């Protein structure tokens, strides 16, 4: 057996009707449209607070993560877990998990923005809580994809790793460029 198959079998063995309902909601909220909506809202807040370049950079970073995820899906063309283990009907490829990658891109970009803006210190409990919430949400979204049989565990783990890399790198580049421009 492989770790991917073992993880899927474990999830199938531990499914319940209530758990499936919860994971279906999580995976729906954590889809690309959901993450895009949150990204735009946070970007608008940044723009309103005078950080136009960082707001636009956040949107560009998450969009870049989405583009990279799609390019990898079509380059690699990995099949999804089989039915009946798969509880969702999806026609795209499996690797990497788009839910995991795009949510991790947003989460890591958001946390990097907090650092860039100097919002992470012991006096900023709300910003630390926000960072914890987006991290937990990303982990739960990825977990839901394996639970529902939409992805193999490795699809999700690689999605998280690539998303984290894109998110940090994107905001670091934007921050550096906007600093050079004197903004």
From TrEMBL:
Coiled coil: none annotated. CDD domains: PAP2_like_2. It comes from the Bacteria. One of its GO terms (molecular function) is undecaprenyl-diphosphatase activity. Its EC number is 3.6.1.27. The keyword Transmembrane helix applies. The chain crosses the membrane at residues 22-47, 54-76, 96-117, 129-150, 156-177. Keywords: Hydrolase, Membrane, Transmembrane, Transmembrane helix. The keyword Lyase does not apply. Residues 54-171 form the Phosphatidic acid phosphatase type 2/haloperoxidase domain. Pfam families: PAP2. InterPro entries: PAP2/HPO, PAP2/HPO_sf. This is Undecaprenyl-diphosphatase. The lineage of its organism: Bacteria, Bacillati, Actinomycetota, Actinomycetes, Mycobacteriales.
